[in-house]
Description:
Helix content: 10-25%
Mean pLDDT: 93
Number of domains: 1
CATH architecture: 3-layer Sandwich
CATH superfamily: Rieske [2Fe-2S] iron-sulphur domain
Structural class: mainly beta
CATH class: Mainly Beta
Amino acid sequence: MNPDASTIAAGAPIEVDLTPIASGQDIKVFWRGKPIYIMNRTKKQVDEARQVPVASLPDPATDQSRVKEGHDQWLVVIGICTHLGCIPIAHEGNYDGFFCPCHGSQYDSSGRIRQGPAPANLPVPPYQFVSDSKLQIG
């Protein structure tokens, strides 16, 4: 028995099967009425995100602080631009992450703001891995 749509919208945790998401791809799911991007990052994307000097970032955060240990390839972020609440586009922009076409904010493959008017990184929702191929958001 699954919770009804109104319960899910109110914040019930959701489970997401990661099996169909190939390396380099992402999906968008909804939790609490918000778009959640789940990105299966390539080794190149992870390496590039970890080579960025944290002090150079407008909202300093390490890549490791934004992912779960042992699941470094999986990025889970709330897909709402921190500037004015638009929905950014995945795999766009100069940093192989997210691009907000409304005002030009660009986030890297770790969801960290790199360029544009957005003041903060894309938020990471509460989540956990229930197995190697399934995660729970909320």
